[in-house]
Amino acid sequence: MTTLHVKFPREWPGWTTKEYTLRSAHPSCSKEGTSFTVIVDSETNSDYSSDSPVFRASVVNSSNCQSGAVVALKFAFRGDLISYLEEEVEVYEVALRSLQAKTVPRCYGLYTGHREDGEPIACLVLEYWGECIDKPFHCLPLNVRMRILEQIGEIHRQGLIHGDFAERNVLELDGDIRIIDFDQTRPHDCQCRMDFRPGEAAPDEQDFGCSHLWKLCKSDMRIWGQPSIGEPPQGVLSLKVRYRLRSRSKDIQTYRLLQRDLQPSTTHSIPNSCSFPSAINDIH
Ligand SMILES: [Zn+2]
């Protein structure tokens, strides 16, 4: 049995509780006699009145996570919300286990306990991976859109449809992407060849092989046809058109070098229509 101690800061606008002690609720994190202590960041960005807030925290003592590591704590403060976290941890630990720390954040398990008033609570602990995308997908630089498509394609390859795919569920840190929020997934037999051919004419939906990815490419990401907002100059575009997801997917270092090389092309000013209201700039 693993125990999670969550400590809140002394200067805390949220509530008076200073600490929760929770216990592992999934077999994958039930090592006998281990404990895990995290301290919530006092500047964390979250809605304190929410029944499902997300807080950033630092690990100070753990047997299965490096001290100093930054994690995201996804809470359920009502009994009826706990089942969503139970479904989500199952997805992280089973269907997407091989994609942890590559396509989805590393998962440190689900922990359950009770509030001081007796209400059951739960906390899903995930590797912290920055903030969510803060503008519509089609306003992002092409290389970022392609990286997101590559990542969502990997999830399809594991036999899952995300079920709630949106900008708020895509995190970006140091130029790399992680996908989150897996409480609405559905089984999926993906027949996509995963060759998106950005900049070319939209392929036939039937020929593409996956209607979900086809719609994502066409309507949300707008990678086909005429250059869209955020498109690089022609010389850079021709380099990107040669960019093939499959061949690069295992080589993050090469991807980052490519991204750095392309940096000057991604500094176009973005019109106001490409900004979200600040209200949805939460971590999740
Ligand atoms: Zn698919």
Tell me about this structure.
This is non-specific serine/threonine protein kinase. GO terms for molecular function: ATP binding; protein serine/threonine kinase activity. Residues 148-189 form the RIO-type domain. Keywords: ATP-binding, Kinase, Nucleotide-binding, Serine/threonine-protein kinase, Transferase. The protein has 2 domains: 2-127, Phosphorylase Kinase, domain 1, CATH 3.30.200; 131-274, no CATH class. The protein contains 7 helices and 12 strands. It has helices spanning 82-95, 142-157, 205-208, 211-221, 234-241, 245-248, 252-261; strands at 2-7, 19-24, 34-40, 54-62, 70-76, 107-114, 120-127, 131-132, 160-161, 170-173, 176-179, 186-187. It has a 7-stranded mixed β-barrel. A 3-stranded antiparallel sheet has the order 8-10-11, with helices on one face. Strand 6 and strand 7 (120-127) form a beta hairpin. The chain starts with a strand and ends in a 23-residue tail after the last helix. The relative contact order is 0.13. The structure holds zinc ion (ZN). Residues 156, 188, 190, 192, 210, 212-213 line the site of zinc ion.
Question: Strands, helices and their partners?
Answer:
Blueprint lengths: L1 E6 L11 E6 L9 E7 L13 E9 L7 E7 L5 H14 L11 E8 L5 E8 L3 E2 L9 H16 L2 E2 L8 E4 L2 E4 L6 E2 L17 H4 L2 H11 L12 H8 L3 H4 L3 H10 L23
Parallel strand pairs: 1-3
Antiparallel strand pairs: 1-2, 2-6, 3-4, 4-5, 5-7, 6-7, 8-10, 9-12, 10-11
Helix pairs in contact: 2-4
The protein binds zinc ion.
Zinc ion binds next to α4.
